[in-house]
Design brief:
7-stranded mixed sheet; alpha/beta; binds S-adenosylmethionine; 9 helices
Amino acid sequence: MSPRSDPSLNEHHGGEAAIDLHSIRTFLRQWVRDPVKTASVTPSGRQLTRLMAAQLPRGCSRVVEVGGGTGVFTRALLDAGVARSQLLVVEINPHLADFLRDRFPGVAVACADARHLDVLAEERGLLTGGKLDAVVSGLGMLSMSSRMRCEILRAAFAALGDHGCFIQFTYGPFSPVRRREREELGLRMRRAGFAPRNLPPATVYVYQRLRSQQIASVRQMRG
Ligand SMILES: C[S@@+](CC[C@H](N)C(=O)[O-])C[C@H]1O[C@@H](n2cnc3c(N)ncnc32)[C@H](O)[C@@H]1O
């Protein structure tokens, strides 16, 4: 059954990011195929989804989501007011990318690696007229190598504006972006909150450029 032909998957169902049986089945099947990349047995729950969406900067318009899965964060981003034309979802798994395209008509979905998100955003015209306000990540960063994490963050901050933020959750007890990696990339971090009812419980972190770098870039612009 296609996601749109399943009434439980109607994206307006319940008006919020609801977990549905079809998504859970789809997700579980992809986890069996590739547990490392899929990184979780089920889609994120409502509490975690709300906590992620609550971190979007005020007046946020251009957004890239990486690791879209079955679209719980995508739904929440649209509900938070992000326009379909201003949202790009990057999902590496072709089955999940098709699922997302079917479920969210009008939203650009790239079946690609998050390491290229800056190029993808540029190609899709998302950076015309300004840089990104936020990158929302559903990636399982803990199961990635340090090198891969840094490549993804470099691509994200190449496309993000000065005050743009990278929003990430983790099932682990510490920031999935290590201190050494943050220092290397010139990032600061804020622990935004904990979602104890998520399965498994998860913590949300927000990464931004160091203030000194934001100020330097404003000075450069003023000449
Ligand atoms: C933990 S799941 C999260 C899915 C969804 N955002 C959620 O919270 O339910 C991670 C997702 O990231 C995708 N993924 C893993 N590595 C990726 C990469 N390098 N680029 C893009 N997507 C990736 C997986 O296929 C999977 O759908």
